[in-house]
Amino acid sequence: MKTRAAVAFEPKKPLEIVEVDLQGPKAGEVLVEIMATGICHTDAYTLDGLDSEGIFPSILGHEGAGVVREVGQGVTSVKPGDHVIPLYTPECRQCKACLSGKTNLCTAIRATQGQGLMPDGTSRFSYKGQPIFHYMGCSTFSNFTVLPEIAVARIREDAPFQTSCYIGCGVTTGVGAVVNTAKVSPGDNVVVFGLGGIGLNVIQGAKMAGADRIVGVDINPEKAEWGKRFGMTDFVNPRDVGNVVETLVNMLDGGADYSFDCTGNTEVMRQALECCHRGWGTSIIIGVAEAGKEISTRPFQLVTGRNWRGTAFGGAKGRTDVPKIVDWYMNGKIEIDPMITHVLSLEEINKGFHLMHAGESIRSVVVY
Ligand code: NAD
Ligand code: AHE
Ligand code: ZN
Question: Organism's domain of life (predicted)?
């Protein structure tokens, strides 16, 4: 079949909206009509050539929601008409990681996914006879896409696509980092670095978990109002204080119980670790750093009891947890609608990247 898609032909170039060819689903795969997709900073990072796994030409996008239109041989867990969210972290329920009960990092198809290919080592997308690579196993910047059965979460049909697509990455990543990875308890003090599409979800997750102080840190002063809107109690602009670590440690009587990096900046990751409380504070890295970047701190920071951890997709097991997060949204336990600041057509998708870089959006969503 033919489908409209925004193709990343080269790094650092605008996406081009073209009609691409899409092969139908093979055994164990499903064809999904994407109804809406968010634009995450990770899409921008890959498009900007900063991802060591970046591969071109490809169809980016990993924060979608849509409808199953066709299933391949042997598919049993979804059927045509089902509403689904694509999963860049699949859940096969059979691999060592899935069976461990210790991680959401399913390994069943990670190798081919990182090469921009389906599990059989080929691509379903092509343009003028040349293959186009998949991205993060999702490629939601295409109106139709093919996904492995283990990489779709079936969701309730009354959830609007335009908002629930955000659960495909940002919402689950932020809220999940708090409840699954950090396991924040009532009364804990939390610091969140970077109040964008991810950081605001960390804030609303921390509020939901009953955190006491929730301190937001951002170099964009306009993010102060956004943070407060979702439960932030204090705001620090690093440009207004001499030493951000010292400021936070003093504010929180020795430091944070939990801190979260939602910037991808390795200097900020260090600040996030060092603002943690001596003896127990834990810092969770969510931000994705540019290829070649490394983190550093004095080992003494760890010797004296601070913990450095990371999380992908908020530690969520997609097929199990995503439908529950959709329920949280539909039941009003978490908010999504106010964070969707811009709704765009596919033709306007490059505007979504400009808005993000300018700090003018929280989430732009493309509706097909
Ligand atoms: P975003 O662009 O919406 O937000 C980033 C925020 O960080 C902005 O508000 C910006 O002003 C702020 N910021 C930038 N530099 C800063 C600094 N030096 N100090 C304080 N604040 C600073 O991006 P997003 O969509 O929220 O994504 C945030 C990060 O999370 C990205 O690196 C993205 O790739 C990553 N991410 C990781 C996962 C995961 O599973 N680990 C999932 C989604 C996104
Ligand atoms: N490809 C990069 C790493 C990118 C990365 O860490 N991605 C996160 C999700 S970001 C979503 O917006 C992730 O899921 N990581 C775990 C995994 O298996 O990719 C690189 O450095 O090569
Ligand atoms: Zn993302």
Answer: Bacteria
DSSP label of 141:
T
ipTM confidence:
0.99
Closest ligand by atom to 63 CA: 3
Atom 15, ligand 2: residue with shortest CA distance: 312
Ranges of residues in the chain whose predicted pLDDT is under 50: none
Any ligand 2 atom below 6 A from CB of 144: no
DSSP 78-124: --TT-EEEE-SS---S-SHHHHHSS-S---TTHHHHHTT--TTS--S
Please work out whether the CB of residue 60 comes within 6 Å of at least one atom of ligand 2: no
For residue 328, being part of any structural domain is answered with no
Nearest alpha carbon, ligand 2 atom 21: 52
Q: Is there a single domain that holds both residue 220 and residue 92?
A: no
What is the number of domains present in the chain?
2
- The domain of 225 spans 174-311
Q: Quick check: CB of 322 below 6 Å from ligand 2?
A: no
Instruction: Looking at the structure, tell me whether residues 234 and 154 fall in a common domain.
Output: no
* 344: in domain: yes
Question: Which ligand number lies closest to the CA of residue 263?
Answer: 1
Q: Which among 92, 28, 81, 37 has a CA at the least distance from the CA of 319?
A: 92
Regarding whether 223 and 74 lie in a shared domain, the answer is no
Q: Note whether 124 and 145 are same-domain residues.
A: yes
- How does pLDDT run across 62-117, given as a tens digit for each residue? 999 999 999 999 999 999 999 999 999 999 999 999 999 999 999 999 999 999 99
Is residue 53 lining ligand 2, measured as CB closer than 6 Å? yes
CATH number at residue 295: 3.40.50.720
Residues annotated as part of the active site: 40-42, 62-63, 92, 95, 98, 106, 110, 169, 363
- Pocket probe for ligand 2: among 42, 95, 133, the residue whose CB has the most ligand atoms within 8 Å is 42
Residues 94 and 46 in one domain: yes
Do 161 and 99 belong together in one domain?
A: yes
CB neighbour list of residue 225: distance below 8 Å, 6 or more residues apart: none
Give the CA count within 13 Å in the CB-facing half-sphere of 170: 35
**In this structure, are 164 and 178 located in the same domain?**
no
Looking at the fold, whether 251 and 233 belong to one and the same domain comes out as: yes
Q: Whose CA is nearest to atom 30 of ligand 1?
A: 287
